[in-house]
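To: structure desk
From: M.T.
Subject: fold request, one chain
Message: Could you run this one when you get a chance? Sequence is below, nothing fancy, just the single chain.
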Amino acid sequence: MSKYDDIINLPHPVSKKHKPMSAYNRAAQFAPFAALVGYDEVIKETGRTTADEVELGEDQINDINSKLFYIGNNKDVLVEITYFEKDKRKKGGAYLAITGTIKKIDLDKGVVVFEDKNTVSITNIVKIELLEARLKLTRFSCFFGVIIIL
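Reply: Done. Structure tokens follow.
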């Protein structure tokens, strides 16, 4: 004889106040849950890599300045600018490139403004490629034996 023989054959009690819970809601009670909310995001963020910002040498700074001067004096020059964008969450950042025609160089705000309204801080510029200017210079690359190089 078992200790539950007295209740084993009794009818299942049904509440008169509450409706029976659906199978879906009953199963939800036993579903796994995230004990540490946001932990997965922290792990992903920790695994995300960033690049260190490289300090430019004097030659690189002079090269950037001369190309900015050239762009400021010549309209409709197609350029590709590589710049460093600091990460908002971690130390470091990423090197990005943007290609387009520069509308103006705003020295008061310290930014280069593209025709499509994108802006790049002058202090973050790492490299400038003069794409359209190079095409124009190929026609006149040698003038009286002097090679023109930007």
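Reply (cont.): The mean pLDDT is 83. Let me know if you need anything else for the meeting.
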